Amino acid sequence: MNHIAEALAPFGTTIFAEITALAARHGAVDLSQGFPDFDGPDFVKKAAIDAIDNHHNQYARTAGIAPLNRIIAHNWHARTGIEIDPDTQVTVTTGCTEGIAAALLGLLNPGDEIILFEPYYDSYPALTARVGATPRYVALRPDASGRFTFDPDDLKAAFSDHTRAIMVNTPHNPTGTVFDRSELECIADLCRSRDVIAITDEVYEHLVFEGAHIHLQTLPGMDERTITLSSLGKTFSLTGWKVGWAIASEELSRAVRAAHQFITFCTATPFQHGAVAALGAPASYYERFVAEYRSKRDYLCDSLVRIGFKVRPPDGTYFILADHSAFGTGDDVAFVRRLIEEIGVAAIPPTSFYAHPEHGRSLVRFAFCKREETLRSAVARLEALAR
After folding, report:
1. What is the pTM for the complete model shown?
2. Region 124-133: what's the mean pLDDT?
3. For residue 208, what is the DSSP state?
C-alpha cells in the first residue's frame, strides 16, 4: 500500500541517495554528490563549539539570531550598496533547500505557474508539485562555445497570465553557467512587465571563475520583487550545518516567514553562531577559496578532455557537466552505471534534473569539491576509458 502523498509519489528517491548507495556497494571514488570530503575552517567550527559550551543550545528566534541577521545585512550592503533591515528583510533558514520550500509554500497557490530552467536542482519541481502549482520549463542549451544559456524567445513564451514566479539559479548547478547582465536583464524585463516574483538560488555566489556574479535583486525594479536565497555550506565547506538565508523586501519576507515558522521554526542555534564567525571572514579567505577550486576545476577538466570527454570548463560552481558520447555507452544512466561498476568512479546522470530527459542523455555530472588525492584517484581510474 502506497502511503506517499500523490504530489510527491512520482519523484521517488532522490538520485543522490541512489548513486551514493551504488557507489558504496562497488567501492567507487565518489564524484557524484556535491559536498566536500574535507572539513571547513577551524575558526568557524570553533565558534560553533564555543556557542555550545556557552549554552546557546535552545531555540533561536524564528527569523535568526540577531548577530547573524546583522552580518548578512552588512555583507549585502557591502556587496550591493543597498541597505536592508536585518530584522524584517533577512530570514535565516535551515539551508537554502528549506529557504526554497518556504518561498514556494509562502508564495504559491494551487493553479499558479512557476517558470523553472532545466536542468534544475531536484527540489524545485517536487516542491512545486507539493504546493499544487504548475511548472513551465525553459531549457538551458549549449551555445557554439559550449556555454549553457536560454533562448529569450523560449523564456518569453513560458510566461502567461497565470505566472506567479520564476526560479533563477546562478551560478547554475549543474551547467556551471553564471548568468551575465544581458541574461538577467531579459529575466528582469519579463518579471517587471508581467508582475512576476523572482526567487534566486545563489548558493554558489562566491564560487565564480569567469565573469562576475550579479544579484538579480539589484537590477532596476527588482528589489521589491525578488527573494535572494543563499547559504553557508558551499562557501565554507560545511554543507551538513544547513544554515541558509532569504533576503527580500518586508512584504516578501513575510511570505517566506509564514511558511518557515511551520517548517523548521528556527535553524540550529550553535551553527548560527558559527555562521556569524564565517561571514566575518576577510576577503583573503574568498580569494584563497576561489583559487583552490580553480586549481581543482582545471585539473579535472584537463584530465577529462585528455581521456575523451567533451568539456567546457564551468564559469562557476564546483560541477562539471561533460559529454560522454565518445564512449558509446548509451544514455547517461547506463554510462554512470558503467562508471561505477566497471571503472570505479561515481557521477550523477543529469536526466534526473530535466523535465525533458532527451536534453541530458549525452551528459554526466562530476563534482570536484574533493581533496586532491580523491580527484587524482578518480582520474587514474577514469583513464581506463581511454584505453
Report:
1. 0.96
2. 97
3. B
